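Journal club side-thread
Mid-discussion, someone asked how the predicted structure for our own chain would compare to the paper's figures. Pasting it here so we can look after the session.
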Amino acid sequence: MTESVRLILERGDPRRTDDWTRRLSTDAVIAERNQTPELQQITEIVVSRAITSGAQGVALTGSTARAKRTRISDLDYHVVGNRPDVHDLPADVDVYESSPDKMRTKLLQGDDFVQWTLCCGCLLYDTGVFREAAVTVVEQDLWPDAESKLRRLPELRRLGERLIAVGDRDAAQDQVRAALTSAARGVLLRQGVFALARSELPAQLRLIGADSLADGLDAAIYTDPPLEALASMLETVVAVELVSAA
């Protein structure tokens, strides 16, 4: 049994109607507990607009769903169906939208975001698409594709290097953090560890002995490193690339 299956089953067996009903109720409570009143209001607007637009599923995802928000956290949602209009909401509202068919295809291809929604997200509305996807993960014992994360590293690293070269420290930090995050998720998934929220990745990395990667990601999340330090962090990404290619 993969860890993703275990995480889903811990919140109730999606093959059982009572379990799934209980999960939806529990997820709503968790989402409320993990948000400030201001964030709750935004979430209510996103869910309402998504349903009005014909969405078949809406989930709160990311660090908010895990109660692990940091200063750089967005307010993340996974919408199955039409994307709701969020132009008038705060800039840190991030909506990942997919059709039911696209979600299923990505799930079967090993997309880690879809599995993350099912394993760790707070499912706030579901006409059956999330349940069907969760059943698929359980019955087929699915696991996210680590290699897709690792294949992105050269591109992410090169963009980080270009931003460092032109001296755009803030943009460079965003890009270095993205590269380190992708590396972390790939490394963890290769080890059979389900990657949690970004702020939880350093601790997970240390458990498997990936201390350099953990230190770099910690610094990229919680500090404002100078350009020289950011360049050194990318050397860790290069090391992951070399190991992955071996």
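Post-session note: The mean pLDDT is 95.
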